[in-house]
């Protein structure tokens, strides 16, 4: 099916990356964008100027890059496409959760909006993707993503894994093998000082106890009130 965006795949990738980098900050640096996309900073500078000319980003020297309202709308449209595809591949086609991200990266630019919405309807309009990330609505609304990470919070439990970073398949395979999936309830037993590991117990007093390195704990987002917002089916199915 024909794609319906007025932007090239490269521009879409930039808008999605900037959105991800500015979810909790007003702006993103060119070096952060370059690192996220795996390109040279010089390439980012040229693209940012082009995006500013298109009216989808604002760039203030020495401060960073931020999305304009129209840029944010387009970024959310792309994020919705990506996360719907991820969920469809996982729930309906049986893809493993570490494989859906890269596959969705390839498909998100080619699928039409009509196909995306048919996928969403077939899935009964899920609110979260397999990694626990919120899926924007067709109107561009998105649930809050201001969840603390396991490394940053002082909470001891019970807490629920809300989402995990999905940008590294090897990390996802490791998390899955250790049972650290969205929806899992855990309790923190110990936090070692000086960015040491976090020791947690999964699933209750009889669950497995394991130490999680600080860097990995920073990739696990938690819900401090697990009973208030149960994980939806797309996350629980994993």
Task: Tell me what you see in this structure.
With 238 residues, this protein is of the alpha+beta class. It has 9 helices and 7 strands, in the order H-H-H-E-E-H-H-H-E-H-E-E-E-H-E-H. The chain has helices spanning 9-21, 30-37, 41-54, 69-91, 100-107, 113-122, 169-177, 214-217, 233-236, and strands at residues 57-60, 64-67, 159-164, 185-191, 198-202, 209-212, 220-223. The strands form 2 sheets. Strands 6-5-4-3-7 form a 5-stranded antiparallel β-sheet. A two-stranded antiparallel sheet has the order 1-2. Helix 1 packs across helix 4, helix 2 packs across helix 3 and helix 4 packs across helix 6.
Structure described in brief:
The protein has 238 residues and is α+β, with helices and mostly antiparallel strands.
* Secondary structure tally: strands: 7
- SSE topology string: HHHEEHHHEHEEEHEH
Structural class call reads alpha+beta
Report the end-to-end length measured between terminal Cα atoms: 29 Å
Rounded radius of gyration (Å):
19 Å
Strand order of the largest sheet: 6-5-4-3-7
Q: How many H/I helices?
A: 9
The proportion of residues forming helix, as a percent range, comes to: 25-40%
Overall shape: it is globular
Profile the largest sheet. 5 strands, antiparallel
Average pLDDT, all residues: 88
- pLDDT below 50 for ≥5 consecutive residues: which ranges? none
Please state roughly what percent of the residues sit in beta strands, choosing from under 5%, 5-15%, 15-25%, 25-35%, 35-45% or over 45%: 5-15%
């Amino acid at each position: 099916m024909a794609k319906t965006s007025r932007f090239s795949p490269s521009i879409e990738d930039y808008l999605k990356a900037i959105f991800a980098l500015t979810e909790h900050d007003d702006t993103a640096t060119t070096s952060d964008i370059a690192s996220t996309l795996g390109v040279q900073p010089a390439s980012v500078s040229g693209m940012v100027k082009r995006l500013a000319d298109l009216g989808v980003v604002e760039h203030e020297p020495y401060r960073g890059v931020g999305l304009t309202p129209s840029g944010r709308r387009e970024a959310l449209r792309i994020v919705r496409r990506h996360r719907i595809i991820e969920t469809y591949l996982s729930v309906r086609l049986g893809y493993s959760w570490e494989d859906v991200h890269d596959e969705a990266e390839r498909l998100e630019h080619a699928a039409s909006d009509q196909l995306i919405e048919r996928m969403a309807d077939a899935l009964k309009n899920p609110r979260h993707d397999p990694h626990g990330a919120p899926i924007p609505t067709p109107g561009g609304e998105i649930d809050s993503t201001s969840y603390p990470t396991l490394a940053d919070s002082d909470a001891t439990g019970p807490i629920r894994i809300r989402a995990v970073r999905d940008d590294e398949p090897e990390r996802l395979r490791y998390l899955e093998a250790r049972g650290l999936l969205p929806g899992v309830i855990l309790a923190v037993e110990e936090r070692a000082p000086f960015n040491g590991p976090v020791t947690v117990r999964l699933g209750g007093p009889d669950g497995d106890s394991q130490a999680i390195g600080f860097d990995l704990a920073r990739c696990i987002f938690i819900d401090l009130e697990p009973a208030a917002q149960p994980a939806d089916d797309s996350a629980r199915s994993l």
